[in-house]
Amino acid sequence: MTDRYAVIGNPVAHSKSPRIHAEFARQTRQDIVYVRLAAPKRGFRQELDRFIAHGGRGLNVTVPFKQEAAAACKRVSERANFAQAVNTLTVTEGTIVGDNTDGAGLLRDLEQNLRVELHGRRVLLLGAGGAARGIMMPLIARGVRAIVVANRDVGRARSLEERFGLFGSVRARSYDELAGAQYELVINATSASLQGLVPPVPPSVFAPGCVAYDMVYAAGGRTPFLDLAAECGALVTSDGLGMLVEQAAESFFIWRGVRPQTAPVLELLRTAGIPAG
Q1: How confident is the model at residue 277, as a pLDDT?
Q2: Radius of gyration of the chain measured on its C-alpha atoms
Q3: pLDDT band at residue 274, thresholds of 50, 70 and 90?
Q4: C-alpha 29: how far from chain center
Q5: Do strands 170-173 and 95-99 pair parallel, antiparallel, or not at all (unpaired)?
Q6: What percent of the chain has a predicted confidence (pLDDT) above 90?
Q7: What is the dihedral of CA 229, 212, 242, 134, to 10 degrees?
């Protein structure tokens, strides 16, 4: 019997996850079907229960439900526990188990696809939501020198400083407090690019030859944030399509026990062209 999987979010119509997982299944000869589930913003749990009742085996979770997904789990992985956010749900005999593959996806894209050395870099992380939480511990584990978390609501940034500062150098800042500092890696974990906007960062944050990474993926691989970074001297700029594919491969491995090749799928999506998402 064909196993059922899905991506759940709001909005979710733009998601490329069904195509990605279809390619993974074709590669590895796995018998699955993977669809999109659009849940009302206050209807995540009802949609989850309905999916499980109809035999669903696993879900990828996107905004705004990653923290609700964590609350729905019987148990979670260590990396999901650190993040306090879940993007991968596995259902086994009615038991919901949560994991977070965002950090693994980001690291694989940066290190393997973009050939970026993370050790010793000063990192500026824009945003303090679920997307940011999922990548904090993986970055710390790679030996970055320091992470500065900037957010409009500084209180949310401070919550990340308090949680992850036990494991590495983490500091919370407002956007206004960034003036005069420079960073070798600047990661946009906000959704500003989806609205064609740029977080209010001073141009000085981009150190000469730095890496700028936008976790949003976009047509042509360009976002307003990346355009700004390039104008300010960033040597490497990338949207989040590679991260999307790599974290999906990690989810696929959790569900199916086989690891698909990501490079052909990433090339396929780049060649086909994608809308922002």
Answers
A1: 43
A2: 18
A3: low
A4: 26
A5: unpaired
A6: 83
A7: -130
236/276 Cα distance (integer angstroms): 20
pLDDT at 273: 64
In the chain, the N- to C-terminal Cα span, in Å, equals: 32
- Run of H or E including 47: helix 44-53
Task: Give which of 29, 101, 30 is closest to 249, Cα–Cα.
Answer: 101
- DSSP class of 109: I
Closest Cα to residue 139, out of 86, 179, 185? 185
Handedness of CA 64, 67, 69, 72 (dihedral sign): negative
Residues ≥6 apart with Cβ < 8 Å to 233: 206, 207, 208, 209, 210
- Token output for 53: 């009742």
Q: How far apart are CA 255 and CA 246, in angstroms?
A: 14
Q: Active site includes 16?
A: no
Bridge partners (DSSP) of residue 277 are none
CA–CA gap between residue 276 and residue 263 (Å, rounded): 20
Out of 16, 41, 66, 74, pick the active-site residue: 66
Helix, strand, coil in percent for the chain, rounding step 5? 40, 25, 35
**Cα 61 from Cα 234, distance rounded (Å):** 31
Q: 3-state class of 134 per DSSP?
A: helix
